[in-house]
Design brief:
By secondary structure, this protein is mainly alpha-helical. It has 13 helices and no strands.
């Protein structure tokens, strides 16, 4: 005897995932949007709780659809991948910011500011924190669940754009919360950057054979890299000029990936199959 809920989840797993993700995260963030939030501990905690929406939703839909939660979670342990992908996950976002900083100084007359480099000593700690609770924890949902299912039916480029737009929409409430990282950023540039970054994440996920662990590391690196903007520091990157330059660099990398590898795979080698159920 068939289970109608399970049958529905098997037919529309990505739709169910996004719906549940928005419900969970936006419920956590709703009080902050309603009150305007503030840069305090309570705001930070609710932002962090909402950040687990993608991972929790992926686990719930995987379980409810009758697929293996263990296999889905196992993608987080996939660390044996070529060293170049580890290097990319750790260093590529810093490269985005370094090139944008150079463009700011050399092309637009920005002032070189080495002060952010003083934070390098604490970088491993901040990277570990963001990996666990400040962005990396989203990736079991975005890349560990949604991406492989979308790639089973669509090209890697289309799958990346769908995940990127869904990822962007998920963040929108945080632009109304003063204590969030998004509140100070120019939304138009942020929107373009997030969708372009989704292409880069797909390149890393596909090229590494489906390692969600590396996607988590890349996400942590992306969220930490703006702290090292060398043309005015972290505050300068929140301006249209600073964030616009970073966005330009990210788009250039995404377009390069598309040209080199093509829209079907966006990476060398075959597309990873993903965990059981991702072919539905």
């Amino acid at each position: 005897m068939s289970n109608p809920v399970r049958d529905l989840l098997r037919r529309r797993p990505v739709v169910a995932f996004f719906a549940l993700t928005y419900l969970f995260s936006w419920t956590a963030w709703a009080p902050l949007v309603a009150t305007g939030g503030s840069a305090d501990v309570g705001t930070t905690l609710l932002i962090l709780v909402g950040g687990f929406g993608p991972a929790i939703s992926a686990a719930v839909v995987t379980w409810a659809a009758g697929d293996s939660v263990r296999a889905w979670a196992g993608q987080i342990l996939q660390w044996r991948v070529p060293a170049r992908y580890w290097a990319a996950a750790l260093l590529l976002p810093a490269g985005f910011v370094a090139v944008a900083s150079a463009l700011d100084v050399l092309a637009l007359g920005g002032a070189f500011d080495p002060v952010p480099l003083g934070s390098l000593a604490t970088y491993p700690l901040t990277l570990a924190f963001v990996f666990l609770v400040g962005g990396g924890n989203e990736e079991p949902g975005w890349r560990g669940f949604a991406l492989p299912r979308l790639q089973a039916r669509h090209s890697a480029l289309v799958a990346s754009l769908v995940v990127g737009v869904g990822w962007l929409v998920w963040h929108l409430p945080l632009f109304a919360v003063p204590g969030s990282a998004q509140a100070a950023l120019p939304l138009p540039f942020y929107a373009v950057a997030v969708v372009a970054e989704s292409v880069v994440f797909t390149w890393l996920y596909n090229g590494s054979g489906g390692s969600v662990l590396l996607a988590m590391v890349l996400h942590a690196s992306v969220n930490n890299a703006p702290n090292f903007y060398l043309a005015g520091g972290p505050s300068a990157i929140t301006t249209a000029r600073g964030y616009g330059l970073v966005t330009l660099v990210v788009v250039a990398i995404a377009v390069s990936i598309l040209i080199v590898h093509g829209p079907e795979r966006l990476a060398p080698g075959p597309i990873p199959r993903g965990p059981p159920g991702s072919d539905s």
